[in-house]
Write a structure and sequence with these properties.
With about 140 residues, the protein is α+β, with helices and mostly antiparallel strands. The chain is built from 6 helices and 3 strands. Helix content is about 55%, strand content about 15%. The radius of gyration is 33 Å and the shape is rod-shaped.
Length: about 140
């Protein structure tokens, strides 16, 4: 049987033989070897830890890059539009998009476009701004489509 130093005695292999180095964690072993070799690994270790991000931090960025936040807000606007606005009006006009505070609404005929622009525009804008913020919907643009 081989003679082992005191710090190597607590480590056993599968075949019940003792093994050197298994009781030290891998990161400690790498650090000791790097010091012995004269290599500084702290920059690489911090670079690896800096790349790791939590899911809560990544999801908003992912939603924004995929455009899901925009489609989600558009879906909410359509839902509120159908709930708040007069059903006769919603049968002829539907929101189609939002960009930089302007809500774009498509109307099915020139007659309804004239009716909405002349008599209902301010009322619709006020209802939507109370449901959302005036920053999200600052203007409404109607077009025939």
């Amino acid at each position: 049987m081989e003679t082992l130093t005191p710090h190597m005695r607590n480590i056993r292999r599968k075949d019940n033989r003792k093994k050197y180095g298994a009781k030290f964690p891998a990161y400690a072993r790498r650090r000791v070897l790097a010091q012995w070799r004269g290599v500084d690994l702290t920059e690489q270790e911090t670079a690896q830890t800096d790349r790791a991000q939590s899911a809560g931090h990544l999801l908003p960025q992912l939603m924004k890059s995929l455009g899901l936040d925009r489609s989600r807000s558009h879906a909410e606007i359509v839902k509120v539009w159908n709930h708040l606005i007069d059903p006769i009006l919603t049968a002829h006009a539907q929101p189609t998009g939002i960009n930089k505070g302007t809500l774009f609404v498509t109307v099915d005929s020139n007659v309804w476009l004239s009716e909405i622009v002349r008599y209902r525009r301010k009322e619709i804008l006020q209802q939507l701004q109370t449901a959302f913020s005036s920053e999200l919907i600052a203007r409404i643009s109607f077009r025939v489509g």
